[in-house]
Design a protein that fits this description.
There is one protein chain. The chain is an alpha+beta fold. The chain folds into two domains: 5-16 and 177-295, 2,3-Dihydroxybiphenyl 1,2-Dioxygenase, domain 1 (Roll), CATH 3.10.180; 21-168, 2,3-Dihydroxybiphenyl 1,2-Dioxygenase, domain 1, CATH 3.10.180.10. It is built from five helices and 16 strands. The strands form two sheets. The protein has an eight-stranded mixed sheet with strand order 2-3-4-1-5-8-7-6. It has an eight-stranded mixed sheet with strand order 10-11-12-9-13-16-15-14, sandwiched between helices. Strand 14 and strand 15 (279-284) form a beta hairpin. It is globular. It starts with 8 loop residues before the first helix and ends in a 5-residue tail after the last strand.
Length: 300
Amino acid sequence: MQFKKTRVTAGNMLLQKVLILITTLLLSAPVLAETVTEYGPISNSPSNQIRPGQVVWADLITSDVTAATEFYSKLFGWEFKFNGDRSYAHAWLDGSPVAAIAAYDAGDDENAEGVWMISVSVRDVLSAEIAVKHAGGKVLEGPEELRGRGQYILVEDPRGALIMLLRANNGDPEDSTGDASDWLWAELWTDDIDASAKFYEKVIGYKSVAVKGITGNTYHVMGRDQKPRVSMIKSPFDDVSPNWLPYVKVKDVDAVAMNVIKHGGKVLVPPERDDLNYHVAIVADPTGGIFAIQEQEKQQ
């Protein structure tokens, strides 16, 4: 999606603050392995099918699991299963796993913010690790096993965006059928379209197709095996570092944005029609985790 340059203000500053903190937060995740004995599956219906390039999971890393779970429960109706000390919560929607929320220790940092991290499926994590390094990226963590979920690596692409690559134990879930309050899409914001496209082609096998929006801006769709999987745009905010933005499907963007505020979150980019004529907004939960909300159908 493309946003109007006039919408920078406070949302832009909060985005930048989260992105400055993101590496520190995620690299504290290994500490969680000491208290989390079971991370849970990404699907309750084992498929034994691997769909490389599919966005299969999302984790919120936050210093306040309680505040985050209360927010998403009220906003989307997600239900949670906690580990013993409640430092980890496995989120469910209509009987299926949808996300996880994990704690990190913020120490004395009162400005620490939560962050959403997407996971993309790969056939072999060790091969992906080699491909990342050869393509100019960095492996920040792993390969490691998350019990109950699968093997993963945490990657920083050459432009600085972070992503997890995952080989799920029981295979990948079926592609979403479009239920509201579930994940819809993920979008890469980058400062170098060509460099990012080359990296993800080498590592995940994505092919990039340019699409012109209604105002003439270019929007890139990346996918493989005849399936569109993610999108990529030039970052609309000059001082926001490259990052991945996850999208949640909603029936009414305006109503959900109002509920975000009602339940203690923030609206960073107010509801508007994006360059592909979808109704979207960017919001943050009370712990700082940023995500987009989008209606399922574009306006005709």
